[in-house]
């Protein structure tokens, strides 16, 4: 074990696990929190430091997770696992370190693997199934019992407003100007789902908030999706945003880290399979309006993430972790290329949605 994990060992003493800690190592590719895998007493755990700059009141996350833990049915009854929180020895759900940062401990889901990209239609169907199961499972809880952990998280118009505020009209650098033109040509997109909520067509439900491929664990044969992890962003929201975000991540087979926008494609076959798996779990529960609005969620999510990456680049990479300056700009271009390909395939994607929900 590397010496500089000693501060983590100190923190771990507060949690109700069997000492000693026999191993600690960094875990995952998250862009916001710091995550470690640790082993103690023959079991594995996930230790996480919540990013206090991103989550204004991290305790709200813990309150939401505790509420989820009081669900009358285990998620396994629907074929889904979500990691359990390990309480502290005092019975609380997290620990604050001397700097004020919040740490929490969860079960590490054993015998699972994480896929950098989907390799088959069957895997895609599984992704849709677990997200659908998660929405079905959480729908049994009153959405008003859950706190908003990240205010404005999917307020696309808010992100657009903050990006616009960085420029006097016509003053953008030449490398940014074409992106701004692309964005302005789609400014109505930022309002579409909000309007659907305001007019009562769709309503907030409990959402996962980050159902990207990295956050779905498969069994060791990479056949069956077993678990949905990364539960920080569970909060009231729109299932259209969740499904759109899932497709944004899974159907861009080259991944968020691709560097050439010209190569980016939205894979319609994978999308069809994810939607079919999702529809299997949700068909008898979603309304026609919910389904009609799914396409807007698919189109808006890469647009919104592109706005967020671009804004962060222009503000000096304060929000998303980057490996080098300029990375957020490249990532923004990739997301906008995905928006463009989704628009090119507009009719085909809408047809795939209809097909998936046909019972
Ligand atoms: C962030 O930290 P991570 O990797 O779980 C972000 C998501 C983005 C995602 C893009 C709280 O998630 O919204 O979709 O990066 N989470 C937050 O990879 O902003
Ligand atoms: Mg996350």
Question: Could you state the oligomeric state of the chains shown?
Answer: single chain
Distinct compounds present:
2-acetamido-2-deoxy-1-O-phosphono-alpha-D-glucopyranose, magnesium ion
Structural class: alpha+beta
Q: What CATH architecture of the largest domain do you see?
A: Alpha-Beta Complex
Low-confidence stretches: none
* CATH uppermost class of the largest domain: Alpha Beta
N/C terminus separation: 54 Å
| Total domains | 2
- Note the main sheet: 6 strands, antiparallel
Q: Bin the helical content.
A: 40-55%
Radius of gyration: 20 Å
- Count of helical regions: 12
**How would you spell out the order of helices and strands?**
HEEEHEEEEHHHHEEEEHHHHHH
Tell me the overall shape.
globular
How many strand segments? 11
Mean pLDDT: 94
Name the CATH superfamily assignment of the largest domain: Aminoglycoside phosphotransferase (APH), C-terminal lobe
Organism: Allochromatium palmeri
Keywords: Transferase
InterPro entries: Aminoglycoside_PTrfase, Kinase-like_dom_sf, Pseudomonas-type_ThrB
Protein name: Phosphotransferase
Polypeptide structure, described:
This is Phosphotransferase. Residues 24-257 form the Aminoglycoside phosphotransferase domain. GO terms for molecular function: transferase activity. This protein is an alpha+beta fold. It folds into 2 domains: 5-110, Phosphorylase Kinase, domain 1, CATH 3.30.200; 121-357, Aminoglycoside 3'-phosphotransferase, Chain: A, domain 2 (Alpha-Beta Complex). Helix content is 40%, strand content 13%. It contains 12 helices and 11 strands. Strands 1, 2, 3, 4, 5 and 6 form a 6-stranded antiparallel β-sheet that branches. It has a 3-stranded antiparallel β-sheet with strand order 7-9-10. A two-stranded antiparallel sheet has the order 8-11. The longest helix is centred in the last third of the chain and has 21 residues, at 294-314. It starts with 5 loop residues before the first helix and ends with a helix. The mean pLDDT is 94. Magnesium ion binds next to loops.
């Amino acid at each position: 074990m590397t010496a500089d994990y000693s501060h983590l060992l100190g923190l771990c003493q507060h949690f109700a696990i069997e000492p000693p800690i026999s191993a600690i190592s960094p875990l995952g590719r998250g862009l916001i929190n710091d995550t470690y895998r640790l082993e103690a007493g023959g079991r594995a755990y996930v230790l996480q430091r919540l990013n206090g700059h991103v989550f204004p009141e991290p305790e709200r996350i813990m309150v939401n997770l505790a509420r989820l833990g009081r669900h009358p049915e285990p998620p396994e009854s629907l074929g889904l696992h979500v990691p359990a929180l390990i309480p502290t020895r005092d019975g609380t759900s997290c620990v604050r370190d001397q700097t004020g940062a919040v740490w929490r401990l969860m079960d590490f889901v054993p015998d699972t693997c994480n896929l950098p990209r989907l390799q088959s239609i069957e895997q895609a169907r599984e992704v849709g199934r677990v997200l659908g199961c998660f929405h079905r499972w959480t729908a049994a809880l009153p959405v008003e019992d859950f706190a908003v952990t990240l205010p404005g998280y999917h307020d696309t118009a808010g992100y657009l407003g903050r990006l616009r505020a960085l420029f006097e009209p016509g003053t953008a650098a030449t490398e940014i100007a074409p992106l701004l033109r692309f964005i302005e040509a789609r400014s109505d997109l930022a309002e579409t789902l909000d309007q659907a909520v305001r007019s009562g067509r769709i309503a907030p439900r409990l959402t996962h908030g980050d159902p990207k491929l990295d956050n779905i664990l498969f069994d060791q044969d990479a056949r069956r999706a077993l678990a949905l992890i990364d539960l920080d962003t569970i909060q009231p929201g729109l299932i259209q945003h969740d499904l759109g975000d899932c497709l944004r991540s899974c159907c861009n087979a080259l991944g968020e880290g691709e560097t050439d926008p010209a190569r980016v494609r939205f894979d319609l076959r994978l999308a069809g399979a994810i939607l079919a798996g999702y529809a299997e779990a949700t068909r008898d529960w979603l309304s026609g309006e919910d389904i009609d609005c799914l396409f807007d969620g698919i189109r808006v999510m890469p647009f919104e993430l592109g706005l967020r990456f671009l804004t962060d680049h222009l503000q000096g990479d304060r929000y998303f972790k980057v490996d080098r300056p300029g990375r957020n700009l490249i990532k923004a271009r990739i997301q906008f290329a995905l928006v463009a390909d989704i628009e090119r395939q507009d009719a085909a994607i809408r047809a795939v949605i209809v097909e998936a929900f046909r019972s």
